[in-house]
Specification:
Elements: H1 2-54, E1 62-68, H2 70-73, H3 84-96, E2 100-104, H4 112-123, E3 130-134, H5 145-158, E4 164-166, H6 174-194, E5 197-199, H7 201-208, H8 210-215, H9 226-253, H10 256-262, H11 266-288, H12 292-301, H13 312-325, H14 329-345
Helix pairs in contact: 3-9, 4-5, 5-6, 9-11
Length: about 350
C-alpha cells in the first residue's frame, strides 16, 4: 500500500516537473522568437521608409497625405503597401477612378511631439485631397496627458479641416488601456472642437478581441500583420469614402476659383448643387413621362406601338447604339493608364 502511494507521489512530482520544464522551454522559445521578430522589424524600417520616399516623386490626380508612426509606414506587413495607408490609397484610387499620389510623412517610432516637430513642417508643401492622422501609440509608455493634449492640438490645428484622425487602438493590457482611454478622450474632444472626423480605431480593434488580435499581430506582438492592417484600414474607410465623394462633387460642380474661395464650405456647396441636379433630372423625367390616361389613349389610337417582340430593324438599331457606346481605343488607353497607376502608386502591395 505504501509502495503504491510512494509511486503515485513520485509520478505526480515527475509529471509536474515535466510540465514545468516544457512550459519553461516554451516560454524561452517564445521570448527568443519575439526578440528575433523585433530584430526583423528593425531591419524593415529603412526599407519601408525608402519605399514611401520613392513614391513622393509619383504624380497623381488626387493627393493623399498620411501623418503617423510605424503603423502608417506599414511595418509588420509583408510589403509596405499592405499597411493601412497603402490599403486606403488603393481604395481611394478605385473609388475615384483617378490616379493617386501618396505622400506618407510618417516616421517609425514617432510620438505626437515628433510628428509636430518633423512631420508638420513638411505638410505645408502639399495640398491634400485626403488626409489621415494616426499618432499617439508611442506616447503611452511615458504618458503625460497635458503634453499629449498640447501636441495633439498643434497637429490637429495644422491639418486640413477635412482630415480624418484615428483613435489609439485597443492595447488590452489594463494599465495601458487606462492611459489609452484618457488619450482617446483628448482626441475626441480636440477633434470635435476643430470639426475633424474621428476614425473609431479603438472600438474596432477592441471588438476584434484579444485572441484574434494575437493572430493579427506580427511576431513582435506589437505591430499588425497584413490581416491586422486590413482591420485598421476598415476604421478609416467610411470617412475616406465620404471625403472622396466630396472631392468628386467639388471637381464636377465647382471651378477651381470657386473651390478656393469657398474653402471648407466647398464640399457643402458642391453637394447641394449635385442634389439640385438630381432633383432637376427627376422632375424633367416626370414631366416627360405620359400619365396612365395618355398612355391608354395612345395605345387605343395606335400612336404608340404596344410592347412586343423586337423586329430585326429594332435589333439592328439597338446593336448600333450598343456599338456606339463601346469604348474607343482612347477608352482602352484610359484603362491601361489606370492599371499602370495601380501598379506604380502602391507598388508591391497588390
Amino acid at each position: 500500500m505504501r509502495t503504491r502511494t510512494l509511486v503515485a507521489l513520485l509520478s505526480s512530482v515527475v509529471g509536474a516537473a515535466v510540465v514545468s520544464g516544457a512550459a519553461g522551454i516554451g516560454a524561452r522559445a517564445g521570448i527568443r522568437g519575439q526578440r528575433a521578430a523585433s530584430q526583423r522589424i528593425v531591419d524593415m524600417l529603412p526599407v519601408h521608409a525608402d519605399w514611401w520616399r520613392e513614391r513622393l516623386h509619383h504624380d497623381g490626380q488626387l493627393t493623399y497625405v498620411a501623418i503617423g508612426d510605424s503603423a502608417a509606414q506599414g511595418v509588420g506587413a509583408t510589403a509596405p503597401g499592405r499597411g493601412y495607408v497603402g490599403l486606403l490609397a488603393r481604395r481611394i484610387r478605385h473609388r475615384s477612378r483617378m490616379t493617386v499620389r501618396v505622400v506618407n510623412l510618417s516616421v517609425s517610432g514617432a510620438t505626437t511631439w515628433g510628428a509636430k516637430q518633423h512631420q508638420l513642417p513638411k505638410l505645408h508643401q502639399f495640398t491634400p485631397d485626403v488626409c489621415t492622422v494616426s499618432i499617439g501609440a508611442n506616447d503611452i509608455a511615458g504618458f503625460h496627458p497635458d503634453k499629449f493634449e498640447r501636441n495633439i492640438r498643434a497637429i490637429y490645428g495644422a491639418v486640413p479641416s477635412h482630415a480624418i484622425v484615428g483613435e489609439l487602438p485597443c492595447m488590452f493590457v489594463p494599465d495601458r488601456e487606462r492611459k489609452v482611454a484618457v488619450a482617446n478622450e483628448i482626441i475626441h474632444r480636440v477633434a470635435g472642437e476643430l470639426g475633424l472626423t474621428v476614425a473609431p480605431l479603438h472600438a474596432i480593434t477592441k471588438r476584434v478581441g484579444i485572441r484574434r488580435t494575437f493572430f493579427n499581430t506580427y511576431g513582435d506582438l506589437f505591430h499588425p500583420n497584413d490581416r491586422g492592417y486590413e482591420i485598421w484600414a476598415s476604421a478609416f474607410e467610411p470617412a475616406v469614402d465620404a471625403r472622396v465623394d466630396t472631392v468628386a462633387a467639388i471637381r464636377r460642380y465647382l471651378s477651381a476659383r470657386e473651390a478656393e474661395e469657398l474653402g471648407s464650405q466647398a464640399g457643402d456647396v458642391a453637394h447641394a448643387r449635385a442634389e439640385q441636379d438630381t432633383d432637376d433630372a427627376a422632375a424633367l423625367d416626370t414631366a416627360n413621362r405620359p400619365n396612365p390616361l395618355d398612355r391608354l389613349r395612345q395605345r387605343a389610337t395606335g400612336s404608340v406601338p404596344l410592347p412586343g417582340p423586337h423586329t430585326s430593324g429594332d435589333r439592328d438599331a439597338e446593336g448600333a447604339d450598343a456599338r456606339a457606346d463601346e469604348p474607343t481605343d482612347g477608352g482602352r488607353a484610359d484603362r491601361t493608364d489606370v492599371g499602370r497607376a495601380d501598379r506604380t502608386d502602391v507598388g508591391g502591395a497588390a
